[in-house]
Amino acid sequence: MSSTLDKPTADEIAEMADRSEDVSRHFTNKGTARYPVKRINVDFSAPMLTELDEMARELNISRQAVIKSFLRQVLDQHRLARS
Asked: Which of 5, 23, 32, 44 could form a disulfide with 48 if both were Cys (CB 3.0 to 4.6 A apart)?
């Protein structure tokens, strides 16, 4: 462990678990679940990329953040319309 006052790193906790040590004290169950990320490739036309880049500049966020935000909105709207 880094020092006696520091919390162990995830790798250190994993090593402890590999040695069959009880690591439950390191988990509070107060965090939120994070789903695994799966990378995909998506093709966009040049004009669409230009629009996405303009929007990203206006919003001061990345192109990826624009795509993910708008896709999330559309999926939420679709789910609400179906229910």
From this structure: 44
CATH number belonging to the domain at 37-83, selected among 1.10.1220.10, 1.10.10.10, 3.30.572.10, 3.30.1340.30: 1.10.1220.10
pTM above 0.85, yes or no: no
For the chain, the structural domain boundaries read 1-31, 37-83
CA angle at 76 for the pair 75 and 82, rounded to the nearest 5°? 90
What is the rounded distance in angstroms from the CA atom of residue 64 to the CA atom of residue 71?
11
- pLDDT tens figures, 4-29: 567 888 889 889 888 988 888 888 88
Amino acid at 31: G
Packing angle, helices 63-82 and 46-59, rounded to 10? 100
